[in-house]
Amino acid sequence: MSAGEDTSHILSGLTNQLPDRDPEETAEWIESLDQLIQSQGTERAQFIMRSLLQRAGAQSVGVPMVTTTDYVNTIPADQEPAFPGKEEIERKYRAWLRWNAAVLVHRAQRPDIGVGGHISTYAGAATLYEVGLNHFFRGKDHPGGGDHVFFQGHASPGMYARAFLEGRMSEEDLDGFRQEKSKAGHGLSSYPHPRLMPEFWEFPTVSMGIGPMNAIYQAQSNRYLHNRGIKDTSDQHVWAFLGDGEMDEPESRGLLQLAANENLDNLTFVINCNLQRLDGPVRGNGKIMQELEAFFRGAGWNVIKVVWGREWDPLLAADKDGALVDVMNGTPDGDYQTYKAESGGFVREHFFGKTPQTKEMVSHLSDEEIWNLKRGGHDYHKVYAAYKAATEFEGKPTVILAHTVKGYGLGTHFEGRNATHQMKKLTLDDLKQFRDHLRIPISDEQLEADPYRPPYYHPGQDSPEIQYLQERRKALGGYVPERRNTAEPIHLPDDKAYEVAKRGSGKQMAATTMAFVRLLKDLMRDKDFGKRVVPIVPDEARTFGMDSFFPTSKIYNPKGQNYLSVDRDLVLAYKESISGQILHAGINEAGSTAAFTAAGTAYATHGEPLIPIYIFYSMFGFQRTGDSFWAAGDQMTRGFIIGATAGRTTLTGEGLQHADGHSPLLASTNPAVITYDPAYGYEIGHIMKSGLERMYGPDSKDPNVMYYLTVYNEPILQPAEPEELDVEGLLKGIYLLAPAKVDGPRTQLLASGVSVPWALEAQQILADEWGVSADVWSVTSWAELRRDGLAAEEEAFVNPGSEPRKPFVTQQLEGATGPIVAVSDYMKAVPDQIRQFLPHEFATLGADGFGFSDTRAAARRFFKIDSHSIVVRALEMLARRGEVDQNAPKEAFDRYKLNDVTAGTSGNAGGDS
User: Fold this and answer.
1) Is the Cβ–Cβ distance between 371 and 344 less than 8 Å?
2) How do residues 425-455 score in pLDDT, each as one tens digit?
């Protein structure tokens, strides 16, 4: 099978499927077009061709959509703008950057360190970054506010190398690469990690697919801020640097439609098409640039290909019969990769030698000249033309597909090799060849003195090249990347905003989801604070009772609502608006999480604090988008994550795929997430207030956190806040909710969330039917109790001989006697998090296994977590201690029919599913 046949599924066919009944007439038309191009240029030819296509469509002439173009540059040579920089100077310090970046990784891989790194990515992408940093990427001091640049994770050594030339980093800093603790104060993170380097990096990108997704929603967030009148972002651009292999991640391509639908022309993807992923070619038998061109164009993006450097322009101009373009079109990526690992003579024979015409075209060129025919991503002029066209294009986002060589300039051992991504150090010969290629003024003696520590190169801040570099950054508004944390102060709501949560629901039953939504509505009504709240819902607003927000807060749509709404006569009509406050992402948890991240970091990216409140089916949070929440934590996102319709038995009508029995455990693995499982509305009120104070209060010492609250859809009578509420205990994770009502054998019942009413019912049954005295504790956060306990253990470990601090949960239960029964609507591992911190006998009831569809009462009886199961478990433990009759547990088990799922009574049938 030929390469052309193999790639035919991604090449647009205009004539190959139709017979040519009059070749002579065809030749005349083609000659006319050629003459038009020669006499008036490609821009005029484009207009004529588009006019003809439009006319053909109007006359019902079936012309297929051109999803891919020939394997040549999108911008013709005669339409390229003049390059405004001093290319010789820029090329000179670009060589220093590439040297220092490679040396940084090489030195980090010396035998006594061996922390690794990636040499080849930046070597191949240096031109793509440098054209941007010299001419396009605007810093924070730019009058427009500065651009947002998502750097490709594996290229981080290049950004450190530039910071070294700029004077922002020292040699000692560079030698701290990947040694963040052992070189404290000088350690550099392996990849872009804002949490680890909070004054340098803005966006974490190395988790493949997260960068493209977050960049799209960053661009949307910029427009959202502008359209809502919070900040003028009209002059801010989002750039995302991505790898062609990374584009196979579903997240990389799965959200392109949002950028197109919202006309995000403030967004540019730059895809470094070196044709290689981590282990081998991206499309050895195909053409990844052509595939991506078709995909992006079909998704509604503007596509610019930068395939060939300027050395190819004369050859393409001489290609009158299209033979060279045909060879370019038909050559698969695997061959292009091989060419760069061989020689000019090999390219002459195997590429140009495919046809007599193309072989003759290069007969006047030496093998060295053929070898120096660059790919477009290494040509300043071609890349500048693409960036300029992208920033000037209106109405669509732009993707630039730049053809490069991975490991460019590193020598024959690296350039274009399959293993180049994993290669972390250079041999002495590699160093010498690389030095010679880049013309670095370092002697053989310096390299031979210690091949593991070749010197960095810096000509001094007074050199003309560095002065030029600094002038370019000053003109563009300062250094990039840079992160600033100078947000506008915000006025937090006063106590009045939380009154609705304290009052309870009276005689009306309400689920904790509804209690939360009522509180949120009051917070959004706050005059100063309300506008900063960003509700984010992935197409379940009605399920959560948030449709009441539609008419007042409205749904954000940059195009407004240009249709006649079907429910326009209803009080709760669906209402979209350019200035809408609600981000309604559709059935799109990944996009919603990206929107959450963009809003939750606006305090740093824009200096404008926003409070994202993302509410979703709890099963579809940390299980489905946990990697995105990890990236959000790395980016120091602040906000509230609301896992609604929570629990394994509370949403049982929906069945296994909706039954969440583990999200608090998954959330607890993220160090930036504070996890709560509140039982009542007043608990939610205190948690929200405390969370806002922690994130944006003036005295906060650790504001960069996200709060995860699980809320349920089962309606109960929400109690008013108790007068003597232990607020400290509530916020730290546990407080005494209901002391025992009778004297007798003692037990402690610990419950969280929706299980608290079951524990209260069990308390009553134990007292009335068994004479057992039970205290009921509301555990608002098993995870926070565990973190506190582990912290106390760590403090004792590193301070031997000092009086150890008791964990908070130990202190709270210190005076409580009797065995403990812990229960929740989650798997046993959730309450088990605190087991080691309690001296009491401890038993856990939980919903382990898969969920299923049934009534709440039946499901809870099946998992043995309902009120009667709590009673029996407590009696078993007391019987073993000899504090109740030995027959009591069996008697209770039989009386309550614990093995009969139809005998369960804990729970009601109310609430939406």
Assistant:
1) yes
2) 788 988 898 899 899 999 999 999 999 999 9
Query: Would you state the pLDDT for residue 137?
Result: 98
Give, in degrees to the nearest 5, the angle at Cα 247 between 706 and 480. Answer: 60
Three-state DSSP state, 503: helix
Q: Residue 631 corresponds to which tokens in the numbers above?
A: 């990236």
**What's the start-to-end Cα distance of the chain, in Å?**
54
- Give the DSSP per-residue string, 158-184: HHHHHHHHHTSS-HHHHTTBT-TTTTT
The 10s digit of each residue's pLDDT in 354-388 is: 999 999 999 999 999 999 999 999 999 999 999 99
What is the distance between the alpha carbons of residues 100 and 40, in angstroms, rounded to a whole number? 46
Say if residue 304's pLDDT is above 80: yes
How do 773-779 and 734-738 pair as beta strands? antiparallel
Give the pairing type, strands 734-738 and 706-710.
unpaired
Look up the pTM and report it. 0.93
**C-beta separation of 162 from 470 below 8 A:** no
User: How far is the C-alpha of 372 from the C-alpha of 391, rounded, in Å?
Assistant: 30
Query: Is 97 exposed, middle or buried, given 0-12, 13-18 or 19+ CB atoms closer than 10 A?
Result: buried
3-state secondary structure of 238: strand
The DSSP bridge pattern shows strands 773-779 and 583-584 to be unpaired
For 172-208, letters b (16+ CB in 10 Å) and e give ebbbbbbbbeebeebbbbbbbbbebbeebbbbbbbbb
Span 461-509, pLDDT tens digits = 999 999 999 999 999 999 999 999 988 889 999 999 999 999 999 999 9
CA distance 224 to 227: 5
Is-cis flag, bond preceding 481, omega within 30? Answer: yes
Q: Hey, what are 237's tokens?
A: 């651009």
DSSP state letter for 582: B
Q: Give the pair of three-digit tokens for residue 407.
A: 């490991």
Q: Comparing C-alpha atoms, which of 217, 260, 224, 226 is closest to residue 145?
A: 226
| H-type alpha helices, 228-351 | 250-253, 256-261, 288-298, 313-317, 323-330, 333-340, 344-350
**Nearest to residue 168, comparing CAs of 465, 513, 457, 481?**
481
Q: Contact at 8 Å (CB) between 783 and 675?
A: yes
Q: What are phi and psi of 447, to 5 degrees?
A: -75, -40
- Nearest Cα neighbor of 195 from 693, 537, 637 is 637
Residue 407's identity, in one-letter code, is: G
Taking alpha carbons only, the member of 585, 598, 657 closest to residue 624 is 657
